[in-house]
Amino acid sequence: MNEQFQPVVDLIVAKSPSTAPEALKVLRSSAPLLRLRAIAPNALKEGTWTEEERLLLLDTLNSDRDEDGGDSTQSGRTKTLAIRLTEDEHKQLFSMAKENGVSVSDFIRVNLGL
């Protein structure tokens, strides 16, 4: 259980009912920050968030970032996957990741359930 995320999950559940089911999965996830990063943009669009609440969420989302923005808790990832995309597919993938507030790698892993 990822109890350190309980305050943020409680906040998301209270502020964003439509993302509440996904937020609750964070507590049982093997990659809780990836799940939070995937749902945060939609959660922030819903409801009224105070500046303090937004900062708590954003601080939690960035709690494991290293200096270059990488995910320091995932440093065990040493393999790279190269795939061929059209220019349009490439733009679409980067756009979807950006819309969700995550890196392309995080976006792909979350959507594959990794």
Care to describe what's here?
It is a single chain. This protein has six helices and no strands. The chain has 114 residues and is an all-alpha fold. It has one domain. Helix 2 (20-26) runs antiparallel to helix 3 (32-45) and helix 3 runs antiparallel to helix 4 (51-61). The longest helix is centred in the middle third of the chain and has 14 residues, at 32-45. It is globular, with a radius of gyration of 15 Å. The relative contact order is 0.14. The mean pLDDT is 81.
- Rounded to the nearest angstrom, the distance between the terminal CA atoms is 17 Å
Q: Could you state the oligomeric state of the chains shown?
A: single chain
Structural class comes to mainly alpha
Order of helices and strands: HHHHHH
**Taking all residues together, what is the mean pLDDT?**
81
- Provide the number of structural domains: 1
Amount of helix: 55-70%
Any idea what the shape is?
A: globular
**Overall strand count:** 0
For the report, how would you describe the main beta sheet?
Answer: none
Tags for this entry?
mainly alpha, 6 helices, 114 residues, 0% strand
List the helices and strands and how they pair.
Elements lengths: L5 H10 L4 H7 L5 H14 L5 H11 L25 H13 L4 H9 L2
Helix pairs in contact: 1-2, 2-3, 3-4, 5-6
At a glance:
The chain has 114 residues and is an all-alpha fold. The protein is 56% helix and 0% strand. It has helices spanning 6-15, 20-26, 32-45, 51-61, 87-99, 104-112.
